[in-house]
Amino acid sequence: MTTTVVRNVVGSPVRFHRVGKVFGRGRRAVTALDQVDLEVSAGEFVCLLGASGCGKTTLLNLVAGLDEPTSGTIELNSSRPAVVFQEPALMPWLTAAGNVELPLRLAGQSRADRRAKALELLELVRLTGVGDKRPHELSGGMRQRVALARALASTADNLGSALERPSLLLMDEPFSALDAITRDVLQSELLRIWQATGTAILFVTHDVREAVRLGQRVVLLSSRPGRVVREWFVDGLSGPGEAAAVDEINTALRKVISSHAAA
């Protein structure tokens, strides 16, 4: 089998061609992903749904370079896709601004430039005035905003403004640990930031309503091994149309989960 990760391919930020991932060998081998074909267009917001263990996070890890596919090809038009995890994973000894500056510092930007970009990004996520605070001084929602600003800094073009369009942002259930009100606020904020930056987003969630609210396209993976089994275009839905899409996707998701349980 051929395994390829191609970087700086012209076109969509990421394309998967018959991608597979197997963990372990022999009798202990576990196939997490099998023959995945998926493309995320420039500026598109795609939500991944599926049962626990279907390979959603594995898919993100492959794009982020945290793991390698066993088979197939991943074409990346992003040299540094960034990941926002369920936990903010901020450096506790750094300020909010220092956390946002970190990827810029690692990229070799000057102190003045990275400071200016960090402040721009903190303003973008509506955290103006908290740059000097450390993570323990911030609420859970504020910490997740800092993590989002850091991710945007990581994907931004180092030669341009921090508010230029980053190519690809990977989000792994970033709001699942938050209370309902904070989650609702941050979903709205994410949509605003996405529209402001034009970045493509690949967003993993277990919440069908969240997927329909946020995504332009919802992709359903089968239970292990994960394969793309169905897609829905949900951009612009509201009211009865949104409710109908949620019901339809929930039904499909339940079928996927039931078929796995019966296997």
TrEMBL record:
Keywords attached to this entry: ATP-binding, Nucleotide-binding, Transport
Pfam family, one: ABC_tran
Membrane-spanning parts: none
UniProt cross-references to InterPro entries, sorted A to Z: AAA+_ATPase (IPR003593), ABC_transporter-like_ATP-bd (IPR003439), ABC_transporter-like_CS (IPR017871), ABC_transporter_ATP-bind (IPR050166), P-loop_NTPase (IPR027417)
Domain ABC transporter: 14-248
GO molecular function, a single term: ATP binding
PANTHER family assigned to the protein according to its UniProt record, in alphabetical order: ALIPHATIC SULFONATES IMPORT ATP-BINDING PROTEIN SSUB, TAURINE IMPORT ATP-BINDING PROTEIN-RELATED
UniProt protein name: ABC transporter ATP-binding protein
Organism in which the protein naturally occurs: Kribbella deserti
The organism's taxonomic lineage, starting at the top: Bacteria, Bacillati, Actinomycetota, Actinomycetes, Propionibacteriales
